[in-house]
């Protein structure tokens, strides 16, 4: 998917919501557990109930790998289901990979080619040659960890490296890499005050923003400092939407939660754009 | 596996060799490709031919994930084969994972519990709460990326953070984390001169050292600066061993290459310990 198509989708749906599919068997409705593939059935119901309110789905790889072969099957069925039924959706493999060049190439092929996700999250610690293999895929996107939403972000990401924070150095350096136009960045909603600083470095890039909801970030604060003329934000919510209910009405309740966020976003878009 | 058991194995085998199982279908002998599971058959032959010369195997997750369900099956069969037939071997899931706490917990369970690896490689960028879930498993080991063997290591890892390099800060900080006794570190062989500095911070920890062979690092240089009284090194070689031949004699040739390294290690151990 091109960035232009993503922006068009945001305008059509009046939403920049990404729904995280972090599916935990201990949290989904128990009536699904008797089915052959509870994770896929859960995802399918959530996707069918929310696809017109969000622009992106983000399965978190850990929650699928934790179930080995069965989990990998659920993941394949989920991405195929989205691509076949809702091809306008921007899909994110939340994998946080990154390794030496030939290994990163294998990961990139796995997520961007074989599974056919539109994008994948990547960790920056190993530098240029660990990220560029992901950037080589046309009309695919690499979402680089910059400033994450967890407490541990302060251990290294905000530390000073030659008069700037490490996360700033990561973003600046990444702009010099080959095919850097395919980069987006993860910036946690729990650190809204940092968005203004980040927008000085990457005014045009899309930012994937976790941490709204369960982790305590504020949507309006993030938009105030992080939005650009093309919106430039994908706001992720996982648990608050997909676990809104664990009864038979789980998909309906997920839709209600997604709708609340979409309406808040529509209001923000009206004022700002 | 306890660290004491690993050290005992090193003493018994007079080897601190780790063999990387980075299996690429385009590089393995073509006669294997007609079998039902070429990757597992390749690994099985390599393992049977080299298990007495090495103390560790390190499957690289990317090379398995790249084949989806089939790759995951090959991985499961490989780790089960090692655990059942050569339980003394220290197994490493080279996964380079790391995410917010509940996600890292899922990854840790997948690799350390379900697949039953002895250890897993983890990226430090997201800090304490992204690594501690891996450290919580008793007699399992978390191998934290410190200073990697690739060119991109100079982008961030060697940058100065308050008068020390980022990789030094990562190692020092990680020592303050809960269950830090379960930590080992990745330090690339291509940067032998850094080992002395690292040994000042972690004199007793095991270091996993990639980059000998294909990437150009020198075994004797690494040992000169990196070895401690309990050896404290696992030297990884992947391509130079497993792709020594792509004919019918691939396992035999892999053994010859592994034997050369084991003998060099035996010589170093005689002089140093």
UniProtKB/TrEMBL annotation, chains A, B:
InterPro entries: Aldolase_TIM, OMPdecase_type-2, OMPdeCOase_dom, RibuloseP-bd_barrel. It catalyses: orotidine 5'-phosphate + H(+) = UMP + CO2. It comes from the Bacteria. SMART domains: OMPdecase. Pathway: Pyrimidine metabolism; UMP biosynthesis via de novo pathway; UMP from orotate: step 2/2. Its EC number is 4.1.1.23. Keywords: Decarboxylase, Lyase, Pyrimidine biosynthesis. Residues 16-254 form the Orotidine 5'-phosphate decarboxylase domain. Belongs to the OMP decarboxylase family. Type 2 subfamily. PANTHER family: OROTIDINE 5'-PHOSPHATE DECARBOXYLASE. This is Orotidine-5'-phosphate decarboxylase. The lineage of its organism: Bacteria, Pseudomonadati, Bacteroidota, Flavobacteriia, Flavobacteriales.
